[in-house]
């Protein structure tokens, strides 16, 4: 039989106030520890992700710039523009159309090596037609566009793509050339025609495929496009079946630091502008985000010795003859895109200056982004080996 057990309520006890308070303190301590572990793990993860992205973007940027810069001055079968008589038959191209230089650079004011140059948060872009950028050699004309101040600008001129053989050249009022179709030439392209002893700058006003089974196209060098060609046109290059000339597209590419949509609050990025159909700087193309500053030094062969070695690295405002530039040293200051990647502002060293807030040094950044510097020295293939 089941027995009932009597419970004496007077002898039962609950938690005392002290026990309750102790248990609450223990619970809060445990919860605080969990939150701290989560916060620390989250901060560490953001830091790790930011550094990985900087590493990836920095390597891509330096590799991309290296490939472009080392081709400066390439003219197809000619080793370099310098020392070569180039016949320009373009009819009034813009003043910024200057492929004869091969490489052009402009130094941002107040950014020579060793000069303190703290980046400003949400810095507004400025026009390149101001005194912000200078060049040490007379005659260089920078195209007008907006760029982030305190960052250098470089322009590279070179032949691009696969050269095509020229089967015939027609001069005069109806100037044209007949060339291999697989050269990939399109209407409005700027071209270099060369017989490997001399060269001509021209513009393709139209490209018409020749009747089959021919594998050539007729490229009209008229005055019908913009800027077009002189009429009548006199072409210095010659071609023959035994010794054909070649034709290749001309490229002029500007690299600079800008902001998407020119909006000051957007993060800074590496941009480029390629040669447009009218010979000016084309539309802005964003390449790599997170590039805070680009500083460039030019390696000059001052004494023009036969070994063709660099005698000094100087900024663009101290380069008086860009024809003596045989290498380019580019330093990129990369930053994480998002603020708050690290708990506190991080010190860094860039372009010969320490930014840690110490006496005589630059100030600590006013943000909590991760920063890293990537530097690469690029030899110009068509000059370092001589012309």
Order of helices and strands: HEEEEEEEEEEEEEEEEEEEEH
Apparent shape? elongated
Give the biggest beta sheet. Answer: 12 strands, mixed
Give the number of DSSP strands: 20
Strand fraction: 25-35%
**Helical residue percent band:** 10-25%
CA radius of gyration is: 31 Å
How would you state the average pLDDT, rounded?
88
Poorly predicted spans: none
Backbone structural class: alpha+beta
Number of helices: 2
Distance between the termini: 116 Å
How many domains make up the coordinates?
1
Explain the overall architecture:
- The protein has helices at residues 17-69, 381-384; strands at residues 86-88, 103-108, 126-127, 133-134, 146-147, 153-170, 176-180, 190-194, 199-203, 206-209, 216-220, 245-259, 268-274, 285-289, 291-300, 312-314, 325-335, 348-350, 353-355, 371-379.
- The protein has 387 residues and is an alpha+beta fold.
- The chain has one domain.
- Strand 6 (153-170) and strand 7 form a beta hairpin.
- The protein is elongated and about 110 Å long.
- The mean pLDDT is 88.
